[in-house]
């Protein structure tokens, strides 16, 4: 579920416009959270994004409001844009480009997806399915190392470009990194993109940072949480030591969010109230709202 602020940021619609469209044209029917605030699910965000893009191209909202999603998709496709009508096929099209070593085509598809899709949709319905397809082809022996590296390198470069910090009066409230020896980065980048799309002021630090250095930086910046990705099963013992050191070195109100394949084991083993398992995209949105 997405708040008004997050929905506004993802769709490009001002909160006042959201309210006006809901009241006058009933374009979506938002839900309510436990505090009575309006919240939106992924389907509502998709529909609102469709509507925003079409109104930018000159279509009147009073006409669009009566159309179903399929009709909106047709209008978007008529404008020769990717739109949401093709989002489900993007992963397969990107995979075909990887298999054919067509780096230009892959880069164009990824660039347009980044430019047109909200971060949550980009991560959950394009990048994550793409990596699943790549994993399947790898197991089947239909993908070689060079092809996998081609995709990983381009994905990493594009995602880091989105997260590249801009000068701001507001400092980061959330750090993203991995611990020493952990070089798996794509999952960390995807989580950072989700947090970024949800409005979190964050700093992406990359991989292989010692706990004490992370704690020092967190203290200097006054962050509220440190997010880690732990994937390598051979590093669980050192990760336990590093996270224990990190928690002890952080301020009393700073949480440690752990994601990745080893998150469940590490969090159960540590059983610390400030160490939280975070592997669900929806949970990232909820936690970001608390920062």
Oligomer: single chain
Structural class: alpha/beta
The averaged pLDDT comes out at 88
User: In CATH, what is the homologous superfamily of the largest domain?
Assistant: Cobalamin-binding domain
Q: Using the coordinates above, name the CATH class of the largest domain.
A: Alpha Beta
First-last Cα distance: 17 Å
Q: Strand sequence of the main sheet, in spatial order?
A: 5-4-6-7-8
| Strand runs, count | 8
- Number of helices, counting only DSSP H or I runs of 4 residues or more: 14
Helicity level: 55-70%
- Roughly how many Å is the radius of gyration? 20 Å
Strand content: 5-15%
pLDDT below 50 for ≥5 consecutive residues: which ranges? 79-85
User: For the report, how would you describe the main beta sheet?
Assistant: 5 strands, parallel
Structure description:
By secondary structure, the chain is an alpha/beta fold. It has three domains: 80 residues, Orthogonal Bundle (Multidrug-efflux Transporter Regulator, Chain: A, Domain 2), CATH 1.10.1660; 79 residues, Methionine synthase domain (Methyltransferase, Methionine Synthase (B12-binding Domains), Chain A, domain 1, Orthogonal Bundle); 117 residues, Cobalamin-binding domain (Rossmann fold). The strands form two sheets. A five-stranded parallel beta sheet has the order 5-4-6-7-8, sandwiched between helices. Helix 6 packs antiparallel against helix 7, helix 7 runs parallel beside helix 9 and helix 9 runs parallel beside helix 10. The two termini are 17 Å apart.
